[in-house]
Amino acid sequence: MTLFTCRFDAVIHFAGLKAVGESVRKPLLYFDNNLIGTIILFQVMAAHGCKKLVFSSSATVYGWPKEVPCTEEFPLSVTNPYGRTKLIIEEICRDLYCSDSDWKIILLRYFNPVGAHPSGSIGEDPRGIPNNLMPFVQQVAVGRLTSLTIFGNDYKTSDGTGIRDYIHVLDLAEGHIAALRKLDDAKIGCEVYNLGTGKGTSVLEMVKAFEQASGKKIPLAMGGRRPGDAEIVYASTKKAERELNWKAKHGIDDMCRDQWNWASKNPYGYGRSGDSSN
Ligand code: UD1
């Protein structure tokens, strides 16, 4: 039998459960999967002498920010177990680096990833009714859902709907490559970077952009605010631009075009029509 050993230079840790509502109903599932899974991963990395890490954190750690754009130095707070797992893992990473300066860690705080690969063959395919805006809009556009409920139109924003920083998944992917390169920097310890575009877009603006890209009308219903939702969240991207030499290139029209390309080619995602287990 041939035994061969693999060497790992670095790990990008993307894995984790991410549905906010489910995390409120099943906190232990989230703590078990996201926290215990991460601790075991770090133990295995240390055992193999691999101490370079890029971790997928989230803008959720900014809670309801007092001002925008959010800089990496803002105070952190969370409102649900999912967010708490992201914050605790960030803290674990900081403690890990304090205990052993061989670790080189980059925490990436994602804003709102949307879009799909431009080929139309890789995209998001949530199970059940989507929680997030754009997967929901996409399913209305292909006829799987009848209308989008807007969660609140009484925010202090230009059209009353919530504002977020949507980022194309291609830009997000490139942010990870930039972070991996940065891990070669001798001086890096445990650093955090926002991955966003620095631009805020309202729910209605996003729906309009998707209608234009798809040629489909998205029927709307006005609903109340979703508990835990912040009014306006968008990133300061200065630190990532300066230190990672990375900047998002795509705007919301590109995001909607690529998401519609994926949706129209794969209206039922990776599964078949009517298959709810996909
Ligand atoms: C949500 C999570 C956040 C998580 C992120 C993952 C909450 C409170 N926050 O962020 O912790 O990191 O997803 O991508 O769930 N909206 C509607 N109707 C819908 C869905 C959304 O109006 O059916 C609105 C929301 O109120 C919000 C915007 O669309 O203003 C974006 O919502 P969403 O895509 O769920 O992202 P976040 O709430 O920013």
Relative strand content: 5-15%
**What's the total number of strands?**
10
- Biggest sheet features: 4 strands, parallel
Rg estimate, integer Å:
19 Å
Q: Please state the second-level CATH architecture.
A: 3-Layer(aba) Sandwich
The main sheet orders its strands as: 1-2-3-8
The proportion of residues forming helix, as a percent range, comes to 25-40%
CATH superfamily: NAD(P)-binding Rossmann-like Domain
Mean of the pLDDT scores?
95
Sequence-ordered SSE layout with sheet pairings:
Blueprint: E1 11-13, H1 20-25, H2 27-47, E2 52-58, H3 81-99, E3 104-110, E4 112-114, H4 133-141, E5 148-151, E6 163-164, E7 166-168, H5 169-182, E8 190-195, E9 201-202, H6 203-214, E10 220-223, H7 238-244, H8 252-265
Parallel strand pairs: 1-2, 2-3, 3-8, 4-7, 5-10
Antiparallel strand pairs: 6-9
Helix pairs in contact: 2-3, 4-6, 6-8
The site of uridine-diphosphate-N-acetylglucosamine has 21 residues, from α3, α4 and β5.
What this model shows, in words?
By secondary structure, the protein is α/β, with parallel strands linked by helices. The chain has a single domain (11-265), classed as 3-Layer(aba) Sandwich (Rossmann fold), CATH 3.40.50. The protein has 8 helices and 10 strands. It has helices spanning 20-25, 27-47, 81-99, 133-141, 169-182, 203-214, 238-244, 252-265, and strands at residues 11-13, 52-58, 104-110, 112-114, 148-151, 163-164, 166-168, 190-195, 201-202, 220-223. The chain has a 4-stranded parallel beta sheet, sandwiched between helices. A two-stranded parallel ribbon has the order 4-7. Helix 2 runs parallel beside helix 3, helix 4 packs parallel to helix 6 (203-214) and helix 6 (203-214) crosses helix 8 (252-265). The radius of gyration is 19 Å and the shape is globular. The two termini are 38 Å apart. Residues 18, 20, 58, 60, 82-83, 112, 131-133, 136, 148-151, 162, 164, 203, 226, 228-229 line the site of uridine-diphosphate-N-acetylglucosamine.
